[in-house]
Amino acid sequence: MTLRSVHGWLRPRIRQAVKWGVIGLGAAQLVAAATVWGVDTLRKRREPAGGEFPRTDPVAVDVADSELTVYTYGEDLYEAMLTAIREAQEYVFFETYIWKDDEVGRRFKHELIAAAERGVAVYVSFDSFGNLVVPWSFKRFPDSVHTLKFPLWRPGLLTLNMRKSGRNHRKILVVDGRYGFVGGYNIGSLYATKWRDTHLRVQGPAVWELDNAFVDFWNAHRKAHHPELEDRGARSWDSRIQAARNSPSSLLFPVRGAYINAMDRARHHVYITQGYFIPDTEFLDAMLAAARRGVDVRVLIPEVSNHVLADWVARSFYERLLRGGVSIWLYQSAMVHAKTATVDGRWTTIGTTNIDRMSMVGNFEINLEIYDRDLAARMEEIFATDLTNARQLTLEEWLDRPVIARVGEALLHPLRWLF
User: Fold this and answer.
1) What angle (nearest 5°) sits at the alpha carbon of residue 373, between those of residues 392 and 54?
2) Per mean pLDDT, which range of 148-152, 399-403, 404-408 is the poorest?
3) Which amino acids are annotated catalytic?
4) Phi and psi, residue 100, nearest 5°
5) What is the Cα 408 distance to its own chain's centre?
6) pLDDT by residue (tens digit) across 204-234?
7) Less CB within 10 Å around the terminal CB: N or C of the chain?
8) pTM for the model
């Protein structure tokens, strides 16, 4: 048999082997994902979602002529937001990702409509995908409320064009330019008492950061029947409070850069709290580089989140983090959904951005960056309180996990690009 004939004999067999190898890997990933999802579904039926967790009272901190208040309990936050809407005299900007048709969701809808009926200009925006299971009737508003439904179908979904496929994951409330709210809380009864999240209220000139973010998004995505909002410049500038806004349509992702920049500067500690933690290579490298130079890098995440596949994908990073000196703390009995960090008692970020691909380079997101020692001290107190409801995962424990778990993590690791 000649060399050419041997190559001719091998080529189709190699192609066939590659094809079946790819099919086999895909099938194995599908089985792993289905198994994990099925087990988690049974667990949720036996164990109702949410539980008791330590709370911190909202305390105001003065920063750059503005007053900042951190909320870590949904009921406290919702009362403050509803009060602000009831007191509105000129305008309300309201933007959210998920808005449930339940007791809490209906209270917000009622107050927004009531504000519009008394002459307040009310602008509402929500994401259609985030509210896919919410009844259509709940998503209908009277003409007095200007409503922008961020579309479910976007043309980039078929071509994987991030400029035309990202979701609007932001959560913003601005009232009369006097009050601004931003953070991880969606709107719903579950989040009021069962989830541990973090939101920030701003009073003072820094409200413009959120006001301007809403105006820019509205004007960029409004339809012909939507009024254009006035683009007002800032009354004052102060670099101690700034909004970082991820905008996939413009290929701008400053939140990711803000995290990496802060970790690059860190000399003492980095405390991160996240609901979903699937870092990219550069983010992971920044964490490990900080740990190598002696920085105390801690990550607080839920032991079991509401997205089990995200949990398993996140676990595929644990060994590298633990070996690299990063400590992992697993929140117990409740879903922690916060998106916050504080570094060296100087820098803090609070907002809507998860540490995963979709949030960092896919969705519309917003975080505030705050350079202030008093606010950082407050966030450190909150982090310390949260650790009382968490257990530290050790490298020894992790290396002792079952072989079947290792196989599942390896199979699901490639799915990190989906989150």
Assistant:
1) 40
2) 404-408
3) 169, 171, 176, 337, 339, 344
4) -75, 145
5) 25
6) 999 999 999 999 999 999 999 999 999 988 8
7) N
8) 0.89
pLDDT (tens digit, 9 = 90+) per residue, 305-359? 998 888 888 889 999 999 999 999 999 999 999 999 999 999 999 999 999 998 9
Q: How far apart are CA 68 and CA 372, in angstroms?
A: 11
Which three-class secondary structure string do you get for the chain? CCHHHHHHHHHHHHHHHHHHHHHHHHHHHHHHHHHHHHHHHHHHHHCCCCCCCCCCCCCEEEECCEEEEEECCHHHHHHHHHHHHHCCCCEEEEEECCECCCHHHHHHHHHHHHHHHCCCEEEEEEECCCCCCCCHHHHCCCCCEEEEEECCCCCHHHHCCHHHCCCECCCEEEECCCEEEEECCCECHHHHHCEECCEEEEECCCHHHHHHHHHHHHHHHCCCCCCCCCCCCCCCCCCCEEEEEEEHHHCECHHHHHHHHHHHHCCCEEEEEECCECCCHHHHHHHHHHHHCCCEEEEEEECCCCCHHHHHHHHCCHHHHHHCCCEEEEECCCEECCEEEEECCCEEEEECCCECHHHHHCCEEEEEEEECHHHHHHHHHHHHHHHCCEEEECHHHHHCCCHHHHHHHHHHHHHHHHC
Please count the CA atoms within 13 angstroms of the CA of 243 that sit on its side-chain side: 27
Q: Which two tokens stand for residue 75?
A: 């009921």
Q: Residue 64 in contact with residue 372, Cβ under 8 Å?
A: yes
